[in-house]
Amino acid sequence: MSTLPNCPACNSEFTYQDGNLYMCPECAHEWSAIAGADDEADESLIKADANGNPLQDGDTVTVIKDLKIKGSSSVVKVGTKVKNIRLVDGDHDIDCKIDGIGPMKLKSEFVKKV
């Protein structure tokens, strides 16, 4: 029987510890093994790019992977610069406007901070 806590994001029981972090292999959520409950709540509000750099409203980011646009034949190409992002809650946690495409929501795991 494992004494490790379930994942707070997806409630998976398959968590493991890596140094000072707990990790979930199912949803890739990471949280501190030594932080209290208040710290975990603050940590969930902080969004990070693909390299782990914290993102803020108004940042400029670059897309690191070709992203197909659902319901369209258009693609957001690698290297597309997105200015003045806005962080929101949810699966797609970046709200932005891309030149030539329009308003869009992106996942922070597919961008890097400029």
From TrEMBL:
<feature type="domain" description="Protein YjdM N-terminal">
    <location>
        <begin position="3"/>
        <end position="32"/>
    </location>
</feature>
<protein>
    <submittedName>
        <fullName>Alkylphosphonate utilization protein</fullName>
    </submittedName>
</protein>
<dbReference type="InterPro" id="IPR004624">
    <property type="entry name" value="YjdM"/>
</dbReference>
<dbReference type="Pfam" id="PF03831">
    <property type="entry name" value="YjdM"/>
</dbReference>
<comment type="similarity">
    <text>Belongs to the YjdM family.</text>
</comment>
<dbReference type="InterPro" id="IPR013988">
    <property type="entry name" value="YjdM_C"/>
</dbReference>
<dbReference type="InterPro" id="IPR013987">
    <property type="entry name" value="YjdM_N"/>
</dbReference>
<feature type="domain" description="Protein YjdM C-terminal">
    <location>
        <begin position="49"/>
        <end position="114"/>
    </location>
</feature>
<dbReference type="Pfam" id="PF08274">
    <property type="entry name" value="Zn_Ribbon_YjdM"/>
</dbReference>
